[in-house]
């Protein structure tokens, strides 16, 4: 996988606000871990498991932030993984580390924010 091409496509999908396009990058058994889940839900949980749970969370996030726009700064490659450094919502910088299954779909993702 070319990490730079993947990063550009991933950013394009998010900036399109097309939820199905965004979700096309993820496996059915996706696990998403991000501090934003705790902030949005007001609870202690920071991980979502399964594409349907992630779909509902991101649907609400896209509705809450209709002007969401990500700006890619850099991408890096690892073993069956990529890390994206980008400017996120509310002028926050983010790093997302994404791990891929055999079908090159993201099955685990960890987000970090400044």
From TrEMBL:
Residues 8-87 form the SnoaL-like domain. It holds the Pfam family SnoaL_2. SUPFAM superfamilies: NTF2-like. This is SnoaL-like domain-containing protein. It comes from Chryseobacterium vrystaatense. The lineage of its organism: Bacteria, Pseudomonadati, Bacteroidota, Flavobacteriia, Flavobacteriales.
């Amino acid at each position: 996988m070319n990490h730079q091409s993947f990063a550009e496509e991933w950013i394009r999908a998010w900036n399109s606000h097309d939820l199905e396009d965004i979700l096309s990058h993820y496996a059915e058994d996706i696990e998403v871990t991000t501090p934003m889940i705790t902030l949005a839900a007001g609870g202690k949980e920071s991980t979502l498991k399964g594409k349907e749970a992630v779909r509902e969370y991101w649907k609400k996030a896209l509705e809450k932030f209709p002007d969401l726009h990500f700006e890619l700064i850099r991408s890096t490659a690892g073993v069956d993984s990529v890390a994206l450094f980008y400017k996120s919502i509310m002028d926050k910088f983010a790093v997302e580390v994404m791990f891929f299954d055999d079908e090159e779909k993201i099955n685990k993702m960890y987000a970090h924010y400044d």
